[in-house]
Write a structure and sequence with these properties.
- The protein has 107 residues and is of the alpha+beta class.
- It has three helices and five strands.
- A five-stranded mixed beta sheet has the order 1-5-4-3-2.
Length: 107
């Protein structure tokens, strides 16, 4: 899991109209693919650089068909449930792939 948020506490996803189709248009990643990463043992760490206004996290993980994705997200509380709000979701770059594969070997 890394040094980030405990994803086992997540109870769902929070999509707002501002980001519902953004990742599909910009990175050709569906919302479902972004959500799948959280079910497939991602490596999650805190995103210190982008946590000025709210605490943000980043995840490296796989979709159900093995697509390697980078996901930037925050946690929102809605009706006492912890919900993931995906900010951005895209294919991993080479450096992220190498890091993810190394982490997977060591776990």
């Amino acid at each position: 899991m890394g040094n980030g948020f405990d994803i086992s506490r997540i109870e769902g996803f929070d999509w707002n109209k501002g980001n519902i189709d953004k990742n599909l248009k910009k990175h050709n990643v569906t919302n479902e693919e972004g959500e799948e990463v959280f079910s497939n043992n991602p490596f999650v760490s805190k995103d210190e650089r982008h946590s000025k206004k709210e605490q943000r996290f980043k995840a490296l993980g796989r979709t159900n068909i093995g697509r390697l994705l980078f996901v930037s997200f925050t946690i929102r509380k809605a009706a006492e449930k912890l919900m993931v709000r995906i900010i951005s979701c895209r294919d991993m770059n080479k450096k992220e792939e190498v890091k993810y594969e190394e982490i997977q070997k060591n776990t």
